[in-house]
Amino acid sequence: MSKPSFDATTTVSSEFGIFGIPLDFADCELILLPVPWEATTSYGPGASDGPAIIRNASEQIDLFDLDYGKVFERGIHMLPIDEKILALNQSAKSWPKRPSNSSPIKVKTRFEFKNCVTKSTKLAQL
């Protein structure tokens, strides 16, 4: 069975999908999961609007890449924004915040990637 085709030179709309690509979940190799979350932001509201803004702006992006060519032909699909995550985000924004003068919890963690080791010794207290 052949994959549905998409002509990137035509006028597109984000209503059809991310980057205007009108392909279904099953026809795509890359699936984007939108997470509208801002309950933990420090500098004000707006982060939860990110997934919708990215999708709306995606119709303005040139899909051809000099290094990778026409990767969009492999299929890119953005899942719908989950209403449960939106509701949880709204609820979490009302949870009590950590006072700014409280001490952070000291936690030792170690992440290894090839020969790189990064150590983190402070995590903010929730």
Walkthrough of the structure:
Helices cover 15% and strands 18% of the residues. The chain is an alpha+beta fold. It has a two-stranded parallel ribbon. It has a two-stranded antiparallel ribbon with strand order 3-4. Strand 3 and strand 4 form a beta hairpin. The termini are far apart.
Which features does this protein show?
single chain, 126 residues, alpha+beta, two-stranded parallel sheet, 4 strands, 15% helix, disordered C terminus
Short account of what is shown:
This protein is α+β, with helices and mostly antiparallel strands and 126 residues long. It is built from two helices and four strands.
Which percent range fits the helix content?
Answer: 10-25%
What would you report as the Rg, rounded to the nearest angstrom?
Answer: 20 Å
SS strand fraction: 15-25%
What quaternary form is this? single chain
**Helical region count?**
2
> Strand order within the widest sheet?
1-2
How many angstroms separate the termini?
A: 50 Å
Biggest β-sheet strands, sense, barrel: 2 strands, parallel
**Structural class label:** alpha+beta
Number of strands: 4
Mean pLDDT: 74
Order of helices and strands: EHEHEE
Low-confidence stretches: 107-126
Shape: elongated
